[in-house]
């Protein structure tokens, strides 16, 4: 179920019925200010609502002071092992602190960070990954890894509540997709706090995107999850943001930019559809509206799809038909299909119409 509570990360509401928030994490050394700011600007441009930066060293704190001021989107400081860095990150103005209360040096240190965060009005993300469960749950992890994850999450929540700190979101992440789904379903029934979803160490762009789409998509379709991060082994954090958006768009949870519908092709295809789809996708990047464009290889499904889409192409041998708002408007030679499609799209916008 959707979280009842919400947190506000630098002006971005997470939970409490707000749209699912897209986040990512920079892959640069945070202290390398130029590289980190370049990457933050790229992920913001790609649609990240908030961004996380790793803060493992003192010099990262120095950079963080500038980053929180210059970043176009709110910044979360990711801290492990060293509670002093957490205190300093709060003082540096981080919009949120990510903390694993199990690895920060004991309850006293967690209490100190919670007190500083409360005084500063800084929210936190608390939680645990399957690889860093508390030691006392080792046996349970062996017997029931889902229950172990949920227990760790609930124990951390109860610890924070005892400290009178409730301004947080929670994440329990696993590399195992079914476990992530089962654990978050259970956790969402046990706590009212916003949930951060992710498949930890998901893998490469290809396999990691699919694992994340299956795991996060299943939960999001059930209304579980308030913010998502796609973890991919790529140096381009903006790729993670693009995948996150595709998941949210596929589930109709949020809209951003055009939606391209294209058939998989089959033996009925009689033109070079690969190049046509690639070119349509490339040119659509220049449009901000959630315009729907279909490219279908033949008339079998092409006419029906074109009726639903805002614009469409149905191919045939040497010629293709262009549709606008469900109406066939032009038959053109295959090599002119893309140009003519975009002439129609631009005409539509020039007439002041919107999707
Ligand atoms: Fe095949 Fe036509 Fe369907 Fe494309 S639209 S997959 S070419 S039948």
Automatic annotation (TrEMBL):
HAMAP family: IspG
GO-annotated biological processes: isopentenyl diphosphate biosynthetic process, methylerythritol 4-phosphate pathway; terpenoid biosynthetic process
InterPro entries listed in its UniProt record: Dihydropteroate_synth-like_sf (IPR011005), Enolase-like_C_sf (IPR036849), IspG_bac (IPR016425), IspG_bac-typ (IPR004588), IspG_C (IPR058579), IspG_TIM (IPR058578), NO2/SO3_Rdtase_4Fe4S_sf (IPR045854)
Domain IspG C-terminal, residue spans: 260-346
EC top class named in words: oxidoreductase
Binding positions for [4Fe-4S] cluster per the UniProt entry: 263, 266, 298, 305
Cofactor note: Binds 1 [4Fe-4S] cluster.
Reaction catalyzed: (2E)-4-hydroxy-3-methylbut-2-enyl diphosphate + oxidized [flavodoxin] + H2O + 2 H(+) = 2-C-methyl-D-erythritol 2,4-cyclic diphosphate + reduced [flavodoxin]
Pathway recorded for this protein: Isoprenoid biosynthesis; isopentenyl diphosphate biosynthesis via DXP pathway; isopentenyl diphosphate from 1-deoxy-D-xylulose 5-phosphate: step 5/6
Encoding gene (name): ispG
Keyword terms of this UniProt record: 4Fe-4S, Iron, Iron-sulfur, Isoprene biosynthesis, Metal-binding, Oxidoreductase
The protein, known as: 4-hydroxy-3-methylbut-2-en-1-yl diphosphate synthase (flavodoxin)
Pfam families referenced in this protein's UniProt entry, alphabetically: GcpE, GcpE_C
Similarity-based family: Belongs to the IspG family.
EC number: 1.17.7.3
Sequence ranges assigned to domain IspG TIM-barrel in this UniProt record: 5-245
Gene3D superfamilies: Dihydropteroate synthase-like (3.20.20.20), Sulfite Reductase Hemoprotein, domain 1 (3.30.413.10)
Function: Converts 2C-methyl-D-erythritol 2,4-cyclodiphosphate (ME-2,4cPP) into 1-hydroxy-2-methyl-2-(E)-butenyl 4-diphosphate.
Cofactor(s) it depends on: [4Fe-4S] cluster
Single GO term (MF): 4-hydroxy-3-methylbut-2-en-1-yl diphosphate synthase activity (ferredoxin)
């Amino acid at each position: 179920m959707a979280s009842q509570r919400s947190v506000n990360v630098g002006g971005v509401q997470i939970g409490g019925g707000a749209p699912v928030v897209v986040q990512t994490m920079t892959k640069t050394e945070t202290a390398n200010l130029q590289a980190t700011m370049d990457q933050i600007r790229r992920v913001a441009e790609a649609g990240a609502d908030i961004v996380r930066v790793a803060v493992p060293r003192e010099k990262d704190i120095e950079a963080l002071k500038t980053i929180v001021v210059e970043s176009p989107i709110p910044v979360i400081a990711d801290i492990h092992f060293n509670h002093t860095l957490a205190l300093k990150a709060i003082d540096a103005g981080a919009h949120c602190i990510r903390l694993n209360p199990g690895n920060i040096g004991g309850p006293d240190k967690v209490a100190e960070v919670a007190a500083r965060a409360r005084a500063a009005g800084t929210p936190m993300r608390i939680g645990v990954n399957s690889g860093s469960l508390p030691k006392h749950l080792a046996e349970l992890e062996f017997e029931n890894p889902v229950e172990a994850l949920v227990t760790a999450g609930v124990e951390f929540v109860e610890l924070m509540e005892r400290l009178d700190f409730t301004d947080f979101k929670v994440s329990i992440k696993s590399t195992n997709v079914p476990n992530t789904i089962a654990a978050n379903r259970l956790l969402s029934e046990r706590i009212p706090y916003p949930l951060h979803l992710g498949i930890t160490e998901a893998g490469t762009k290809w396999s990691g995107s699919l694992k994340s789409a299956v795991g996060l998509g299943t939960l999001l379709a059930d209304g579980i999850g308030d913010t998502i991060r796609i973890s991919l082994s790529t140096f381009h954090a903006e790729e993670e943001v693009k995948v996150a958006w595709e998941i949210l768009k596929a589930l109709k949870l949020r809209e951003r930019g055009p939606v391209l519908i294209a058939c998989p092709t089959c033996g009925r295809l009689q033109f070079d559809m690969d190049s046509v789809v690639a070119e349509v996708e490339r040119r659509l990047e220049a449009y901000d509206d959630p315009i729907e464009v279909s490219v279908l290889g033949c008339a079998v499904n092409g006419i029906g799809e074109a009726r639903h889409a805002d614009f469409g192409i149905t191919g045939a041998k040497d010629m293709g038909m262009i549709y606008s708002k469900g109406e066939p408007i032009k038959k053109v030679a295959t090599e002119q299909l893309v140009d003519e499609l975009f002439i129609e799209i631009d005409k539509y916008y020039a007439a002041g119409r919107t999707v």
